[in-house]
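Treating backbone geometry as a discrete language has practical consequences that deserve illustration. In the encoding step, the backbone of a single protein was reduced to a row of integers, each denoting a local shape. The amino acid sequence and the backbone structure tokens for this protein are reproduced below.
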Amino acid sequence: MNTNGNGTESPVATGEAKKLATDKRDLLVLLKLIKKYNLKQTEELLCQEANIKQDDLEDVDEKEITNILSSALGENSECNGETKDGPGSDPELYDAAYGELCNFVDESLDIYKHELFMVLYPILIQIYFKLVSGGYSKAARSFVEKYGQDLDYFYREDLQNLLLITKKSEMENNDWVSSMDSDKFIIRMSRDAHSLFKRHIQDRKQELIADIVMKYISFDTYEGTARSKSQCNATSGSLIGEARRQDNKIRVYYGLLKEVDFQSLTTPAPTAVEEEDDNDPDAPDKPKKKKPKKDPLFSKKSKSDPNAPSMDRIPLPELKDADKLEKLKALREASKRVPLGKDSLPSVCLYTILNSHNSVTCAEISEDSFMMAVGFTDSSIKVWSLTPSKLREMKSAEMLKDIDKDAEDVLVRMMDDRTGESARTFYGHSGPVYRCAFAPEKNMLLSCSEDATIRLWSLHTWTCIVVFKGHLFPVWDVRFSPHGYYFASCSYDKTVRLWATDSNQPLRIFTGHLSDVDCVQFHPNSNYIASGSSDRTVRLWDVLTGQLVRLMTGHKGPIYALAFSTCGRYLASGSSDHNVLVWDLSHGQLVTSLVRHTGSIHTITFSRDGTILAVGGLDCYLTLWDFSKLSEDYIAQNSNASHNLDVDESDHYLLRAFPTKSTPFTTLHFTRRNLLLAVGTFKS
């Protein structure tokens, strides 16, 4: 034994003894862990080699096992019940590294500064997660408070939510943490700016920053000049960063499907006798019968759109004669449509729902503008007739036997005039109703609710036909396909689902959003579904393949409203950030940002001729925008533009803003003749 002159142990010997004791303790903990998993042979061999008795394992507790595992994984664990909030080496190293990175960005040339600035947010988030998982919760908080104020305004809410995570256990089941961990944050950056950033990390030997960048950030680099501040801000703000350019490379068939040939419905086919008379060479002087005049409304043949999908790309329901006649009626009504524009704005009719400000959750108007459905927080749905005709119920089975089934007006004869009412109510959901949707045939109504179900109601028998179960959490939105049969829904469970009315299981489940999916909308050709989410992205899904074909970032808050243009090329989205963004689906790029509202946008619609975009907000304002001029300017600019388009945020496309006294807008709807109907609840 090593001793000093006084006969006591030397410090070297004491240190060695302590080390041996620690090593033996570590072995005991390891043995306890092996015993826990019932690895008997390994346990016996280790006890034999290390000369350890089974009795020695009794005083090893679970906390020691956790500490050993944490140290083996290179993590700072909590020791003896005390959190390491003191000025340890890790917080100081991270603070110094991040501070040096901030200085580098500030001192960079102005041309590169704005793109380099975008790396600060994801790096700050990851440093916070590392400090919290290491037990440095106080140091993590002070770190965010020190540097968070320098980030863009649209990340402030994220930072507030970040500070609510104070323990490692809280990180384990957090959706945001897991999504930041599994999906890399995408930053689009010019090659020159990216080279500068890499050189800074290598020259300064910033291993901590380099490790975070390698694991959690993906750069989508491009050749050319770096983007300006406004260009960077236009597409940033989502939880995933920006969309990669290859995300939007897949071709989208945004054109409209060829319309039904109505000529055969309007003109009866010539009989064999008539044809013989017309072609008889022996009777040249016989006066020819006058052929019926062609209706000019249907004589124009619809041109085939090169951007349209083929008619058989997805199976669509065959139109019945009654549906064709209804389309014919719609087309005749459309011929009387008022052309809208800068000098001829639409008339607006506002339906104000009184004494129900906190109880109305949604409103929807049927395509022919004959009915309005309103959903309530008490789980009921009320349907009103907007015309003098009453809402009638189908006759009983006994009475239906006497009806001539071959009569042209058989559908009218089936309804019982004695049961006519101006309003009817549906009961069945067990939670607030968040959306209603009329079928294009007007014989059914869909509704979705907090109870995680979707219900299909008959507008003939006024009863529930089907309950669709599949979503795990509240369903926020449901929409019918413009061609009927299919419908789409979205939920708090982060999924979009495609259904058919004759199947109780979803046909497609679209996954990819990192948070609630708040709204869905079918493309006019029924081949695509758009979704808007609280992860601040807009996505376009292909109904046929189930594939994500467009990913669009730029909103700074959850997205609550979507609307496709009548031509099918453009998509407008409204958000809680008070802005409406217009997207070009052919390339997936941002066309413009419409800035005017001071409240969340909850409803958007295009006029029937596609010239006017109407927007309703919770700020009690209805705005009308000149969409025909907007699209013309965009096409002209796009024909000779580079990959970095300047996004115009001025309101010179604004035609008119209509304020209400105290009525936020719930829904907007253009009739077939371009009268604008609006629904809102009066705030008393």
Residues 11-36 form the longest helix (26 residues).
